[in-house]
Design goal:
The structure is a single chain. The chain is of the alpha/beta class. It is about 45% helix and about 20% strand. It has one domain: Rossmann fold (3-Layer(aba) Sandwich). Strands 3-2-1-4-5-7-6 form a seven-stranded mixed β-sheet, sandwiched between helices.
Amino acid sequence: MRKERLEEEFELGEEEEAIHEYEALTDDYLHINASLIAEEIAQLVKATNGVAVDLGTGPGSLARALATRCPALVVVGLDISLPMTRLARDRIVAEGIPNVVFVVADVHHLPFRTCSLTVIISHGAMHHWRSLAQALAEIKRALAAEGLLYLSDLTRTAPDDVVQHIAALLNPKQARAFVNSVQAAYTIEELAQLTAEAGLDTVRVEPEEFSRRTIARNIEKLRRSAMRGLRQPVINIRVVSTDKKPSATGV
């Protein structure tokens, strides 16, 4: 039976508490995702310079990972939360990454000129956005004609046994937030319709699989990760520019 999409309900009472839990979740479990996705994007990017924007950057894991792999790009991490943005800024200062900055802004009203962005990326954020249709319209407006789009998120069609396996690795608050996020996520069919309606006609919506090169470059991190063995394509889906996809294999 098809699962109906639910609006995500956060059970954490305060923003600071939510940030603390998300930071812990990222550090303990999700950092491997940032490394894998950044490696994949670095292979897809053809431009030697320009501006890349990470939408819903959170603590900035994906933005930082991409900035270290593509030093000629200026990477902008964008998030609507000021405390989260401060956390991300503290981390780049501590790590000394010069080509990444973080800004507070709303994905529904991107503060960038039309056709000005070389790369637009995101991971785990689309299901949080108030109006995905409006956000996709803004992405369409801001992305350069030959720009790269890579949006990754959970899928609501993830098998229950996989969802429960991941939830069992987390503390109770994190587990509830994760399950809520899965229930709030989109299906491939829904994303395909929304991207088409936004005029994003040069993208593909598909299960998220990584190239052999990406896996090889992250093999030691994968072996150490609590998420090792996870069937990535059944839990995550992506919107990616069609003419920039390398040959892929499963994790």
